[in-house]
Amino acid sequence: MTALFNYKLKGTDGLARTGVISTPRGEIRTPAFMPVGTAATVKAMMPESVAATGADILLGNTYHLMLRPGAERVANLGGLHRFMNWQKPILTDSGGFQVMSLAGLRKLTEAGVTFRSHIDGSKHELTPERSMEIQRLLGSDIVMCFDECPALPASDKAVAESMQLSMRWAARSKEAFGDRPGHALFGIMQGGVAPELREESAAALTGIGFDGYAVGGLAVGEGQEAMFGVLDYAPGFLPEDKPRYLMGVGKPDDIVGAVKRGIDMMDCVLPSRSGRTGQAWTRRGQVNIKNARHQDDPRPLDEACSCPACRNYSRAYLHHVFRSQEMISGMLLTWHNLHYYQEIMAGMRAAIAARQFAAWEAAFHALRAEGDIEPV
Ligand SMILES: [Zn+2]
C-alpha cells in the first residue's frame, strides 16, 4: 500500500541521493529545486511556464500571504493552488524567518512573535498554532514547522536557547498540525555551526517524528565554506528514509555542493530575482546581459539551452530589452534561469542514478571555470 505522502529513496552515489516524493498532487523528483512564488506568483512567469521548466513543486511564503491577500481570503477563494492556478504541489514556509527579516517592531516570547506588517504597519501575531492554521487555509502540501532563526553573529548560548525554543515550537506545530492525510509536516533543524547543537536538535525532531526534515539557519550570510562545513555532518543526523530540505539555497555551485552532501530539496529566489536584474546563470557561469559586449552579438545566451530565451532570441535582443526596461526582459531571463536550474537538477538526478555524480560534478565545474564565450 502506498501512503498518501511518502518518500522513496531510489539511488545513492556517495552521500548524494535521488528519489521521489509522492503526493496526491503529483510526484516530486529529488534532488528538487523549488522556484519561489512569494506572493502567489513566480514573478514574471506564467504558472504553465514554471511547469514547462521542469519544476515539480514551488514555494509560497506564509508571511507575505497572511498579510496580503490574507489566508482566510485565499481559503474562501478555493485555496492557494486554485487562486494562483498551480495544481502541482506547494510547500509553504512557516513565516518565522521572514518575520525576523522583514517585519517591524518584533516581540518574541515563548508563545510566539508579535510584529508589525512591513506593508501597512498593522499588528499581527504568529505562533506555532497560527502558522499551522494559515498553512492549512492556504492548502499547502508540505507545511513547515514554526521556528526561530537567530540573527548572526550570535553567542553559543543564544544559538542554543533559540534552538531549544524552536524544538518546543516544533512539538506545538506537530500537535496543531494534527492528522492530515496527503499533507506533510517538516521539522526544521537549528543549532548554528555547533555540531553538538545540531545533533541535539535532530534528536529532538526525530523524537517528535516528521514527514521530512529541513536544515535551517543556513544561507543567512555565513558564506559557502561555513555552510558546507555544517552540511558535511548535519544531514547525517537525519533519518535516511525522509526527505532533507535546505532552505533558501542558492547559487548553482551551492546547490551542487549541497546535493553532494545529502540534501534532497532546495528553494531560492535567486534565479527569478536575477532574471529581473539582467543577470543570467548559464553552464559557463554568470552572464551580465547589461554589458555592452552583448549589443551586437547575434548568438543565443547559451547555444545548448532549449529555453525560449535561448532558442528564439539573441544576446543583442536580450541586451536591448533590458536596457529599454521592457517587461519581456525579466520574463525571458527568468525563464532561462529557472530552466537552467531545473537542468542542473535533472542532470544530478540522472548522474546519481547512474553512479556518475563525481564525473558530472567535475564537468559542471570545468565548464564554469572556462567562463563565458569570447565576445564577437
Ligand atoms: Zn536558456
TrEMBL record:
Ranges of residues in domain tRNA-guanine(15) transglycosylase-like: 14-366
Complex and partners: Homodimer. Within each dimer, one monomer is responsible for RNA recognition and catalysis, while the other monomer binds to the replacement base PreQ1.
Record-annotated active site: 93, 267
Organism: Roseovarius tolerans
Positions annotated to bind substrate: 93-97, 147, 190, 217
One example GO MF annotation: metal ion binding
SUPFAM superfamilies found in the cross-reference section: tRNA-guanine transglycosylase
Pathway named in the protein's UniProt entry: tRNA modification; tRNA-queuosine biosynthesis
Entries under InterPro entries matching the protein: ArchSynthase1/Queuine_TRR, TGT, TGT-like_sf, tRNA_ribo_trans-like
High-level lineage: Bacteria, Pseudomonadati, Pseudomonadota, Alphaproteobacteria, Rhodobacterales
Protein name (Swiss-Prot/TrEMBL): Queuine tRNA-ribosyltransferase
